[in-house]
Amino acid sequence: QTCCGLPLMMATEEETAKEVAVQNLNAFSDTLSSPIITLCASCASHLKHNYIKLFEKDSNPPKNLHRFTEKVIDFSSYMKTVLKISPERFLPSGKQVAYHAPCHLCRGMNVRNEPRQLISDAGFQYIPSKDEEVCCGFGGSYSIDFPEISAEILKQKLDHVEASPVDILVTDCPGCVLQLKGGMNKRKSRIEVKHIAQLCADSILQEIKS
User: Fold this and answer.
1) How far apart are CA 25 and CA 28, in angstroms?
2) From the CB of residue 195, how many other CB atoms can be counted at a distance below 10 Å?
3) Angle of helix 196-203 relative to helix 113-121, nearest 10 degrees?
4) Torsion, Cα of 22, 102, 209, 85 (10° steps)
5) Separation of alpha carbons 39 and 82, rounded Å
6) How far apart are CA 13 and CA 76, in angstroms?
7) Quick one: which of 209, 181, 196, 203 has its CA closest to 37?
8) Strand partners, 195
9) CA atoms within 13 A on the CB side of 119
């Protein structure tokens, strides 16, 4: 398996994006009885929805295309709906946590409730903040092509989070983690930024780890 191919598609390199898709479809051809979990919302949305679009005009699309896309699932949904891990498996923290919804998760995958529920299940107190589903300003190369706009979007996002009495800011996307953590570090903020999988790993009971 390799990169999901989203950067290629966004760069209008459609044929190369299709080649990458075929490589991934082949790589998973023997494991399609199991869920395909990704910790990146952008990858999840691309693998699940854009692979279908890439081949929709092909007279002979890859035979395992739909079986593959049906198996793609994000981490929070897997924890809640497949693994169904219970709150008893986590050590209650009591720390207050804000959430940033990645664009490709809340709009691309239409996943909204599962991450917020998982935060609470993992022993943390979920504290809503303003505009949780507004972009953080990263957007892949967007933050490089339009740094001033990206910085202003990030500023508003962090202002809203810092207005809440929280200890940790959680999200489901590595790109968002980079953007948000970099912004908080620049501010010398006391608020930690973590991927939701890291949040779960930090509080899961030791006997479950082993």
Assistant:
1) 5
2) 19
3) 20
4) -100
5) 15
6) 31
7) 196
8) 171
9) 26
Structure tokens at 207: 């006997």
Q: Could you give the CA distance from residue 35 to residue 204 in angstroms, rounded to a whole number? A: 22
The predicted model gives 155-184 an average pLDDT of: 97
pTM tops 0.90 = yes
Give 45-100 pLDDT, tens digit per residue.
999 999 999 999 999 999 999 999 999 999 999 999 999 999 999 999 989 999 99
Q: How do 36-38 and 168-171 pair as beta strands?
A: unpaired
Q: How far apart are CA 130 and CA 119, in angstroms?
A: 17
Q: Which two tokens stand for residue 63?
A: 């035979």
pLDDT band at 207 (very low <50, low <70, confident <90, very high): low
125 backbone dihedrals φ, ψ, rounded to 5° = -100, 110
Query: Can you read off the two tokens belonging to residue 197?
Result: 């999988």
Both tokens assigned to 149: 């706009």
